[in-house]
Amino acid sequence: MPENTPGPVVRFRPAVGRERTYDFAQLPCPPLHAPLAAALEARLAPASGMLTLASADTYFGTIRRFLSFLSMQDKPLACLADVEPDHLYTYRELEGATRTAAGIGRELAQLCRLLQDAPYGSLHPKVWDLVKAPRKITGPMPPRTPVPLYSQREYTALLQTARTDAARITARLTASAQLLAAFRAAPDTLGEEELATARLLEVMDRTGRIPHVEGRRKQDTARLLFLTLADAAPLFVLSLALGRLRVTEAVDLPAQHVVANGHVDVRFDDRKVGPVQCTWEVRGEGHDPLASAGDFYLLLHRLTARSRRFSGTPQLWNLWTGRSANLSGHAPLSRNSVSPLLHTWAHRHHLTADDGQPLTVQMPRLRATAKALARG
After folding, report:
1. What letter does residue 77 receive in the DSSP assignment?
2. What is the pTM of this model?
3. Which of left, alpha, beta for 264 (phi over 0: left; psi -120 to 50: alpha)?
4. For the residues 108-126, what does the mean pLDDT come to?
5. In 33, 87, 303, 322, which residue has its Cα 20 to 30 A from 138's Cα atom?
6. E strand or H helix at 320, and its extent?
7. Beta carbons within 10 angstroms of residue 24's beta carbon
């Protein structure tokens, strides 16, 4: 949600202690804020008998975690009625990977109580039936339908478009790096316009800051030397397709790696599945780095190196976002931002499905298609 955008605020005055406010402005999935704020307000009403500050904090924590989960879905939710039973089952599965059965049981019970208090008619009818009996959610997982695959035409269009964009991104940053190197080695060989650009690049490379340039947006200046959010979508499509990784694995890839015996080895702990080891072949010079997982990883490592230096974080995916914890403007790619970026990217390129409708980039579907094609 954009910074400084107002959102619902729920106030709670416990029987003992000061008033506490729960501000939804910084939470993801803005279309769901109003009905969930109304549900929380109903939960915190004196008539509910729930008068402790700790309980109120717990309910708000449940809302925050559930909205964070929903923000990672491939299809953005336009209203609370878009939440379907499968969302609740998947949330149970995801949270259950890191919590005890009792812990996830309490979480789901609280979520169900909140959803019961949502405004009348705001829930999907099947979700309403579930939240009235939370044990239906905490019970055995229902059979999951297989992830549908993209057609050959759809998948080819996605990858060709992503490779075209990725090649332009690589060419842009490579040209800037070469200009910066020439400026530092022999500035007298550069023309006046090249010198002006090179001085700008030198300041950005040395400080990480983006100077103000009259008539140019800050992100356009940053793009001269750094990856930005506008670059993330095509690169992420290739990361999923070439590496055949889960979304969490792709986002959590570390920069630390070992290259030996013609392979790159990457090891890390995925927050959902635990220890992960990826070993990819490196074809090296003369081969297209946008066509194989190992070479693409090393290319992405190079493209993100400058932002990683200023963010100080170990993740592979680092870029200039304009926001960061250390105020440098450089930060790791957020899982919550990936799906909206992919949606915008596909819309901008007018990608279409076989039925003529706009093509939606669904990350599990992309990975499933890549895996199916790899099996032949």
Report:
1. P
2. 0.66
3. beta
4. 93
5. 33
6. strand 318-320
7. 24
